[in-house]
Amino acid sequence: MFRSLCMTALLLGLLSCGGNGKVTTERIDDCTATIHLQGKGPLLIMPIEESADPLSIDMVNGDRHVPLAQVRLARHHADYYAPLTIPSGVEVLSISGNLGEAMFLDNMSFSNQFNQTAEDKYRPVYHFSPQTGWLGHLAGAVSHDGTYQIYFEHIPQGLKAENIHWSMAESADLLTWQEKDELLFGDSIGEPLGGSVVLDKQGNAGAGHNALIALYSATHGQGDDRRQEQCLAVLDPDGTHFNKLNTNPVLRTYDDIPDFRHPGVTRYRKGNIWEAVINCGEKLRIYSSEDLINWNLECYIDDAADAEVVSYVVGEHLPSHPHVQGTRIPQYESAQMVELPTPQGNKWLLLCNLNGGPEAGSYLKCFIGDFNGRKFVSQSHYPILPDAGHDFASTMLVQESDGRTLITGLLGSETYLDGLPSFPFCGQLALPSELSLYETDEGRLKVQLTPARELLQLRQDDKVFDDFILNSKHDFPNAFAECDGAFEVILTYDADPQALASLALYNVEGEQVELQINALQSSLTLNRSKSGWTDEHMIQESTQSGLSKGPHELRIFVDRSSIEMFIDGGKQVISQLLFPTSPYTGMQFTGQGIRVSNMHVYQLAAK
Prior knowledge:
The protein is 2% helix and 50% strand.
């Protein structure tokens, strides 16, 4: 997999290790090796080979072996280096499995720190991405003690969804993120999947006031034997790990369904209770609790509706789209509810993340309605898709003291997330947006995702362009020449009723991502089919239709391996992953019948 990057990754890994401990290895036979650790740690820096079979790493205490991890240690060559946290006091590790040539035995170090440089080809400049490994579902988001904390499924030692634990990214400004790894591990109950982290201000769970509480899904077994249960854990005051309840799990299903995961927890203030929306395959269930430990089933949200138990049917087939018609009903992931102000009074928004399969990507579907603490009743009777891209998944919300509700998510789709060319990392956060509801001229409520105001601080150099009327072609070959793939384009355009035009961002190889403007159909389409590397399962076109009358404002954020386009302040959004061979340097308008004004290009850089 892209072996031309291997030597670069290897060199970066060696330079970043800064070993200040000692590693002594001994190969016992073809299936067993021993590692002795001396000096300062606690990080074992290991070479990873993605195509290798995983090896088991156990902690050794006399005759007792305690499983620690399963890692695809390099047999022949290193794709990259990754850290493994070793618990305090552990001095001996045992490695078992088919060792093969086992080049990893001579290429390990023991260190206090690991700092993967940001020189990877597709490493985003101003989006958070893990130093190494796979970033899966988001698992919670809170604002606490002046910082934002995003919890997520993580595998630092690999790019495949195996041996999952929780890590966390922390930021004081939503712009610069620090990664804290390995906060929550699996146990005999199961491997930790997604969930929610909430600030328990009143101490309802018995862990004290302002404790950070995680309600997470533990999964074990495979196929028909798979079971998923909800467990509780409390973040230690030093913020280094979660302490699990001895009485876990706190919530099981009575019917032993295999899919029962990703509880989205929110506070219902009128009843002073906690509410959790839990994904059950193609259905949802709502539970309530006073203490986050004892839960009551309140409501089904199901496509097999019974008026006594189902508040609204949200399990219908996929929305009409040429790429997804006829595919299976999508699988719900990371559902959540939030109360928001509107011109019609406060309303509840039910957010459902869906994984629609190989030809549908991942996307967010929303319903607006009322909630009384037991049942959600939709008033929209139509699904709202605020982001028409197919790479916006696993969303998480943060409600701020200033009244804002912030939302972020995972940029990517489960269908191809572990096959991307971005290693040694896989996955990145979407830009933070301010979530709100607005009323259309027809009186309908819709969802708006406005780029968070903090993003303005990313702007560096400002290129200002003259207004123009497009009647054939307008080319700006060096618009982003000095931006190193990280920039924002902002402009206003007005279109004639029959206008057909496009805006292409391109590089020196001739690769391009194209925005197609169709005034007759009141639509914008983002096409990435010629943008660079693509996967066969990637949907190449994403369309936002039903645009209001112009003029329209566009804000386009590009960050090496992604593009996020916000139309009219976020009333329509399109997010996609991109993997150009080299950064885009120019932009070109073609077509006729549009007038472009107030155009700026900003180089963007993390603080």
